[in-house]
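We treat protein structure as text, and this decision shapes the records that our systems exchange. The tokens are whole numbers drawn from a learned vocabulary of local backbone shapes. One such record is reproduced below, unchanged from the form in which we store it:
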Amino acid sequence: MFVLMSQGFFPPTFLVLLYSNSKIIYICRNPMDMFISLWLFTAKLRDNNLESLLLDEVFDQIFHGIYANGPFFDHVLGYWKASQENPINILFLKYKDLKKDINTHLQNLAIFLGVPFTYDGKKQGVVKKLKEVEVNKKGIHISGVPHKTLFRKGETGDWSNYLTPSMVERLEKLIQQKLDNSGLAFKLSSRTSKDIVSA
């Protein structure tokens, strides 16, 4: 089983071909929240001797598809399309939906993995914030990054505290263009933005 976030490394064709019998869970954040999350996370990892990453410079790179793991929209749409073609092996989830109704999505996830919750499991509850699990408070990831660095607020819509109206407008147009006719849509969680819906 693989659990991937929209900042992940592997294109869908790689995983589907390499692990055709595996279950893949892909969790996607809306592009605006993903961008801010990535920008803040990358800033935490930078050497203190290096110049800080300016928001507008990083925005322009992401906007033009310059991203360490390939263009964001290619990655997300690749998994979206793969999940539509192979729903038995690929589950596509949106982070905001998980936040809104975690219990239902965890039950669906358990069914997808072939291990549905028992009545007792549902009654006891299964949700615990990962940030509060002891292993995530201490220790270091295999990449050398402290576990606690991997967690921030986990809020949706926080991008509205960082992006300028001009950035929002540019990104909204890009999202609309990239998602057009894909069936994938995002609710962007802010009064300053319209929801992006794809036909």
In short: The mean pLDDT is 75. The first strand starts at residue 2 and ends at 5. Residues 2-179 form a domain with the Rossmann fold fold (CATH 3.40.50.300). The CA atoms of residues 14 and 20 lie 10 Å apart.
